[in-house]
Amino acid sequence: MSIQSAGLFIAFEGGDGAGKSTQAARLSETLESRGLNVLRTREPGGTPIGEKLRSLVLDHGHGTIDARTEALMFAAARAAHTHQVIRPALKNGTVVITDRYIDSSVAYQGIGRGLGAEGVSTLNHWATEGLHPDLTVLLDVDPAHGRQRRTAGDASEDRLESEPDAFHSAIRHAFLDLAEANPSRYLVLAADDDMGTLAAQILARVDSLLSELAPREHVPGGCP
User: Which CATH class is domain 8-218?
Assistant: First the structure.
Protein backbone atom coordinates (compact mmCIF):
# COMPACT_ATOMS: atom_id res chain seq x y z
CA MET A 1 0.00 0.00 0.00
CA SER A 2 1.36 3.41 -0.93
CA ILE A 3 2.34 5.70 1.93
CA GLN A 4 1.95 8.88 -0.11
CA SER A 5 -1.20 10.96 -0.18
CA ALA A 6 -0.73 12.65 -3.55
CA GLY A 7 1.09 12.02 -6.78
CA LEU A 8 4.51 13.39 -7.61
CA PHE A 9 5.71 14.06 -11.16
CA ILE A 10 9.46 13.83 -11.87
CA ALA A 11 11.10 14.27 -15.27
CA PHE A 12 14.67 13.39 -16.21
CA GLU A 13 16.17 15.57 -18.91
CA GLY A 14 19.54 16.03 -20.58
CA GLY A 15 21.49 15.32 -23.71
CA ASP A 16 21.75 11.88 -25.25
CA GLY A 17 24.12 9.70 -23.26
CA ALA A 18 23.63 11.61 -20.00
CA GLY A 19 22.51 8.54 -18.04
CA LYS A 20 18.87 9.54 -17.57
CA SER A 21 17.53 5.99 -17.86
CA THR A 22 20.02 4.69 -15.32
CA GLN A 23 19.20 7.31 -12.70
CA ALA A 24 15.45 7.06 -13.34
CA ALA A 25 15.65 3.32 -12.75
CA ARG A 26 17.65 3.72 -9.54
CA LEU A 27 15.24 6.27 -8.15
CA SER A 28 12.26 4.12 -9.08
CA GLU A 29 13.72 1.03 -7.40
CA THR A 30 14.52 2.96 -4.22
CA LEU A 31 11.07 4.48 -3.93
CA GLU A 32 9.37 1.15 -4.66
CA SER A 33 11.44 -0.49 -1.92
CA ARG A 34 9.86 1.97 0.51
CA GLY A 35 6.36 0.94 -0.45
CA LEU A 36 5.49 3.83 -2.75
CA ASN A 37 3.56 3.32 -5.96
CA VAL A 38 5.90 4.27 -8.80
CA LEU A 39 5.39 4.45 -12.55
CA ARG A 40 8.52 4.73 -14.69
CA THR A 41 7.87 5.72 -18.29
CA ARG A 42 9.53 7.43 -21.23
CA GLU A 43 9.00 9.84 -24.10
CA PRO A 44 8.26 9.52 -26.83
CA GLY A 45 6.36 6.41 -25.78
CA GLY A 46 4.41 5.24 -22.78
CA THR A 47 1.32 4.34 -24.84
CA PRO A 48 0.81 2.10 -27.90
CA ILE A 49 0.47 5.11 -30.22
CA GLY A 50 3.40 6.81 -28.50
CA GLU A 51 5.66 3.82 -29.09
CA LYS A 52 4.71 3.76 -32.77
CA LEU A 53 5.46 7.46 -33.06
CA ARG A 54 8.75 6.87 -31.25
CA SER A 55 9.80 4.41 -33.92
CA LEU A 56 8.76 6.76 -36.73
CA VAL A 57 10.54 9.81 -35.32
CA LEU A 58 13.72 8.18 -33.98
CA ASP A 59 14.47 5.20 -36.22
CA HIS A 60 16.36 5.65 -39.46
CA GLY A 61 14.73 4.72 -42.75
CA HIS A 62 11.44 6.62 -42.64
CA GLY A 63 12.48 9.28 -45.11
CA THR A 64 12.86 12.98 -44.49
CA ILE A 65 11.13 14.40 -41.41
CA ASP A 66 11.04 18.18 -41.45
CA ALA A 67 11.35 20.13 -38.20
CA ARG A 68 7.65 21.03 -37.83
CA THR A 69 6.51 17.50 -38.50
CA GLU A 70 9.04 16.25 -35.97
CA ALA A 71 7.77 18.69 -33.33
CA LEU A 72 4.15 17.72 -33.97
CA MET A 73 4.94 13.99 -33.74
CA PHE A 74 6.59 14.47 -30.35
CA ALA A 75 3.67 16.61 -29.18
CA ALA A 76 1.12 14.03 -30.36
CA ALA A 77 2.91 11.25 -28.49
CA ARG A 78 3.09 13.48 -25.40
CA ALA A 79 -0.62 14.33 -25.55
CA ALA A 80 -1.54 10.63 -25.47
CA HIS A 81 1.03 9.93 -22.77
CA THR A 82 -0.20 12.73 -20.52
CA HIS A 83 -3.92 12.03 -20.97
CA GLN A 84 -3.82 8.23 -20.90
CA VAL A 85 -0.98 7.51 -18.47
CA ILE A 86 0.50 10.37 -16.45
CA ARG A 87 -2.60 12.22 -15.25
CA PRO A 88 -4.47 9.05 -14.16
CA ALA A 89 -1.38 7.82 -12.28
CA LEU A 90 -0.91 11.13 -10.47
CA LYS A 91 -4.58 11.18 -9.56
CA ASN A 92 -4.10 7.78 -7.90
CA GLY A 93 -1.19 9.05 -5.80
CA THR A 94 1.58 7.49 -7.88
CA VAL A 95 5.11 8.85 -8.24
CA VAL A 96 5.53 9.23 -12.01
CA ILE A 97 9.11 9.22 -13.28
CA THR A 98 9.52 9.98 -16.97
CA ASP A 99 12.63 9.84 -19.13
CA ARG A 100 12.10 13.15 -21.05
CA TYR A 101 9.13 15.50 -21.20
CA ILE A 102 8.27 18.94 -22.61
CA ASP A 103 11.69 20.49 -22.04
CA SER A 104 13.22 18.00 -24.47
CA SER A 105 10.97 19.31 -27.24
CA VAL A 106 11.78 22.91 -26.34
CA ALA A 107 15.50 22.09 -26.47
CA TYR A 108 15.61 19.75 -29.47
CA GLN A 109 12.95 21.18 -31.77
CA GLY A 110 12.68 24.72 -30.39
CA ILE A 111 16.41 25.43 -30.26
CA GLY A 112 18.15 22.55 -32.04
CA ARG A 113 15.81 22.66 -35.06
CA GLY A 114 15.38 26.43 -34.89
CA LEU A 115 11.59 26.47 -34.49
CA GLY A 116 11.75 28.78 -31.48
CA ALA A 117 11.42 27.86 -27.82
CA GLU A 118 8.22 29.86 -27.28
CA GLY A 119 6.27 28.26 -30.12
CA VAL A 120 7.25 24.71 -29.18
CA SER A 121 6.52 25.40 -25.52
CA THR A 122 3.07 26.73 -26.39
CA LEU A 123 2.31 23.69 -28.56
CA ASN A 124 3.24 21.29 -25.78
CA HIS A 125 1.43 23.31 -23.11
CA TRP A 126 -1.70 22.80 -25.20
CA ALA A 127 -0.95 19.10 -25.81
CA THR A 128 -0.54 18.39 -22.09
CA GLU A 129 -3.20 20.81 -20.85
CA GLY A 130 -0.52 22.61 -18.87
CA LEU A 131 0.83 19.67 -16.89
CA HIS A 132 4.41 20.32 -15.74
CA PRO A 133 6.71 18.24 -13.49
CA ASP A 134 7.12 18.93 -9.80
CA LEU A 135 10.84 18.29 -10.33
CA THR A 136 13.03 18.18 -13.42
CA VAL A 137 16.39 16.47 -12.96
CA LEU A 138 18.82 17.77 -15.59
CA LEU A 139 21.88 15.60 -16.12
CA ASP A 140 24.30 17.91 -17.90
CA VAL A 141 26.63 16.13 -20.30
CA ASP A 142 29.31 17.38 -22.69
CA PRO A 143 28.25 16.41 -26.25
CA ALA A 144 31.48 14.56 -27.00
CA HIS A 145 31.26 12.61 -23.75
CA GLY A 146 27.63 11.81 -24.42
CA ARG A 147 28.46 10.43 -27.86
CA GLN A 148 31.25 8.32 -26.40
CA ARG A 149 28.84 6.86 -23.86
CA ARG A 150 26.03 6.06 -26.26
CA THR A 151 28.25 4.48 -28.91
CA ALA A 152 30.17 2.26 -26.47
CA GLY A 153 30.45 -1.31 -27.65
CA ASP A 154 28.19 -2.10 -30.58
CA ALA A 155 25.54 0.50 -29.76
CA SER A 156 24.24 2.53 -32.70
CA GLU A 157 22.77 6.04 -32.69
CA ASP A 158 19.17 6.89 -33.52
CA ARG A 159 18.16 9.66 -35.92
CA LEU A 160 18.55 12.48 -33.36
CA GLU A 161 21.58 11.03 -31.60
CA SER A 162 23.44 10.91 -34.91
CA GLU A 163 23.19 14.68 -35.38
CA PRO A 164 26.57 16.50 -35.23
CA ASP A 165 28.11 17.72 -31.97
CA ALA A 166 27.16 21.34 -32.80
CA PHE A 167 23.48 20.32 -32.66
CA HIS A 168 23.97 18.58 -29.32
CA SER A 169 25.91 21.55 -27.97
CA ALA A 170 22.93 23.80 -28.77
CA ILE A 171 20.67 21.31 -26.97
CA ARG A 172 22.90 21.35 -23.92
CA HIS A 173 22.83 25.14 -23.65
CA ALA A 174 19.06 25.16 -24.20
CA PHE A 175 18.56 22.84 -21.23
CA LEU A 176 20.83 24.96 -19.04
CA ASP A 177 18.93 28.10 -20.05
CA LEU A 178 15.63 26.43 -19.13
CA ALA A 179 17.04 25.45 -15.75
CA GLU A 180 18.39 28.94 -15.10
CA ALA A 181 14.98 30.43 -15.87
CA ASN A 182 13.18 28.10 -13.44
CA PRO A 183 15.65 27.08 -10.70
CA SER A 184 12.99 26.05 -8.18
CA ARG A 185 11.81 23.22 -10.48
CA TYR A 186 15.24 22.02 -11.61
CA LEU A 187 18.02 19.97 -10.07
CA VAL A 188 21.08 20.34 -12.30
CA LEU A 189 23.81 17.73 -11.89
CA ALA A 190 27.00 16.89 -13.79
CA ALA A 191 26.32 13.65 -15.64
CA ASP A 192 29.92 12.46 -15.33
CA ASP A 193 29.82 12.39 -11.51
CA ASP A 194 29.83 9.05 -9.70
CA MET A 195 26.52 7.25 -10.29
CA GLY A 196 25.99 6.60 -6.59
CA THR A 197 26.62 10.24 -5.73
CA LEU A 198 24.16 11.36 -8.38
CA ALA A 199 21.54 8.93 -7.11
CA ALA A 200 21.94 10.19 -3.54
CA GLN A 201 21.60 13.83 -4.62
CA ILE A 202 18.48 13.08 -6.63
CA LEU A 203 16.94 11.10 -3.78
CA ALA A 204 17.61 13.91 -1.31
CA ARG A 205 15.70 16.36 -3.51
CA VAL A 206 12.84 13.90 -4.00
CA ASP A 207 12.69 13.29 -0.24
CA SER A 208 12.25 17.01 0.25
CA LEU A 209 9.28 17.00 -2.11
CA LEU A 210 7.77 13.88 -0.55
CA SER A 211 7.98 15.52 2.86
CA GLU A 212 5.54 18.14 1.57
CA LEU A 213 3.06 15.41 0.60
CA ALA A 214 3.10 13.35 3.81
CA PRO A 215 4.40 13.64 7.41
CA ARG A 216 8.18 13.30 7.40
CA GLU A 217 8.19 10.29 9.76
CA HIS A 218 6.16 8.39 7.15
CA VAL A 219 8.89 8.69 4.54
CA PRO A 220 11.76 6.32 5.39
CA GLY A 221 15.29 7.44 4.69
CA GLY A 222 18.03 5.61 2.88
CA CYS A 223 20.06 5.76 -0.30
CA PRO A 224 19.96 3.46 -3.30
Answer: alpha beta
